[in-house]
Amino acid sequence: MTIINSKTELASGDAFLESEQGAVFAPVFRHVRLQYVINDLASAKIVERDAILHTDWLSAVYKQQWFAMLRTEHDNDLGPQEANKEEFEVSSMRCGRKLAKDGDWRIIQSLSPSLCINFALQYCWRWTGFNFGFDLLVTYTNRFIVFKRNTLSQPCGGSVSLQPRRNIAYRLRLASFDGSGKVICSRSTGYQVLALEKDQEYVVMNLDSRLLAFPLYIGCNFLYISPASRRQESAEPESSSSTAS
């Protein structure tokens, strides 16, 4: 199979998926959640540069995200109100991380010769991209996984929402495997909706050290804003009244 590697091989302004060679891949690309690709500047530039996707596809996603941002800023969209499994499976952002080893336990000698302090190193990270002012920090420490809505306590590369409370829908899953790829242990939080105040932390999972094995693979799905269907329902009465007037 021949793949086009250069934009010069396409007609001017055409996307790869519009070409004869690329059309066969279009059904696969329709399942890509583009809203979570273009929410990162570097990724958005790559998508525009590579010219793989239809312009109409990108225009629709940019419009969708722009209105979602306006609703969050001006219409006080606090985020998902309930865990809708069907909507969550279709619309959530999917993230992953590998923890190569457990946080190292170290014994630190204090100023007093008779006193030693156990200290555990921790993992702390954020999944990057524009998340509508919700700067979520994820921490693994002492076999706890903790979410924190960072607002004022730590530096953030982008803007953060100062609303007193924001909701987030999530499902966190983790697993570890032996050398043959067989699952050793796995855990899941199931579908959850969490309301966090500014700089509030919440323990989302407490792990049993007897069952824990590394490397540990963490997968998480997120929804930071109300699902599209919910936003449309809430907008209908307002649009109807405007039409009547």
SS content category: alpha+beta
Record field, number of beta strands: 11
Shape: globular
What's the number of helices? Answer: 5
Low-confidence stretches: 107-112, 233-245
Cα(first) to Cα(last) distance is: 59 Å
Q: Describe the largest sheet.
A: 5 strands, antiparallel
Strand content: 25-35%
Number of separate domains = 2
- N-to-C SSE string, H for helix and E for strand: HHHHEEEEEEEEEEEH
Radius of gyration: 22 Å
Mean pLDDT: 84
**Helix amount, in percent?**
10-25%
What does this structure look like?
Keywords: Developmental protein. This is Germ cell-less protein-like 1. InterPro entries: Gcl-like. It comes from Acipenser ruthenus (Sterlet sturgeon). With 245 residues, the protein is of the alpha+beta class. It folds into two domains: 11-74, no CATH class; 85-228. The chain has five helices and eleven strands, in the order ααααβββββββββββα. Strands 1, 7, 8, 9 and 11 form a five-stranded antiparallel sheet that branches. A four-stranded antiparallel sheet has the order 4-5-6-10, with no helix packed on it. Strands 2-3 form a two-stranded antiparallel sheet. Strand 7 and strand 8 form a beta hairpin. The radius of gyration is 22 Å and the shape is globular. Mean pLDDT is 84; it is low at 107-112 and 233-245.
